[in-house]
């Protein structure tokens, strides 16, 4: 089976709404595990620009997951704050279909997204913010080289751990894998 990652389009809104209602996705986006992401996917997908993009991962043509990559300094919601340095990226990732969890597709998706971010020479680091109670996500990001930075409350339902991956650490890890 071949994993393919492509730019998300308006036609992907239905699958994103469907995934939002999956119990494992709700568990990853809200501390109580019952709240959906509540995105207006048509608006989100239509507003992609230099500050924000959505990607869809497909396995043999079937969507299995999604990723969002943002420039936290310029994206309109200022989720990460108003004083974020311009040389960072932030991302979210989710596998929408339960059958594809635990098969390495998330690691492939993250590797793709990390490389995409670091293809931009000015990007120094990537931020990610899994929920503080999501131990599986913490282990996953640490395996990829992300380092814990702080615990942070982004809003009333987002008690998160912030992790950071510096370019140098990723390059060192990538070089070791190639050796």
Automatic annotation (TrEMBL):
Listed Pfam families: Acetyltransf_8
Any GO molecular function: N-acyltransferase activity
Gene3D superfamilies for the chain: 3.40.630.30
Ranges where the N-acetyltransferase domain occurs: 3-168
Top-level taxon: Bacteria
GO BP field: response to antibiotic
Keywords: Antibiotic resistance, Transferase
Cited PANTHER family: LYSINE N-ACYLTRANSFERASE C17G9.06C-RELATED
Protein name, UniProt field: GNAT family N-acetyltransferase
């Amino acid at each position: 089976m071949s994993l393919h990652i492509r730019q998300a389009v308006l036609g992907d809104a239905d699958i994103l709404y469907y995934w939002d209602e999956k119990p494992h996705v709700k568990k990853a986006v809200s501390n109580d595990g019952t709240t959906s992401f509540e995105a207006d996917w048509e608006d989100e997908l239509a507003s992609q620009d230099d500050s924000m993009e959505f990607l869809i991962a497909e396995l043999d043509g079937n969507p299995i997951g999604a990723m969002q990559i943002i420039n936290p300094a310029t994206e309109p919601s200022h989720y990460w704050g108003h004083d974020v340095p311009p040389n960072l990226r932030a991302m979210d990732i989710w596998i929408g279909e339960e059958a594809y969890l635990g098969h390495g597709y998330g690691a492939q998706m993250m590797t793709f997204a990390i490389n995409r971010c670091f293809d931009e020479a000015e990007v120094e680091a990537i931020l990610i913010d899994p929920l503080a109670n999501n131990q599986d996500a913490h282990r996953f990001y640490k395996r990829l080289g992300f380092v814990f930075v702080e615990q942070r409350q982004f809003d009333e339902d987002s008690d998160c751990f912030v992790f950071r991956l510096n370019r140098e650490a990723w390059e060192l890890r990538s070089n070791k894998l190639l050796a």
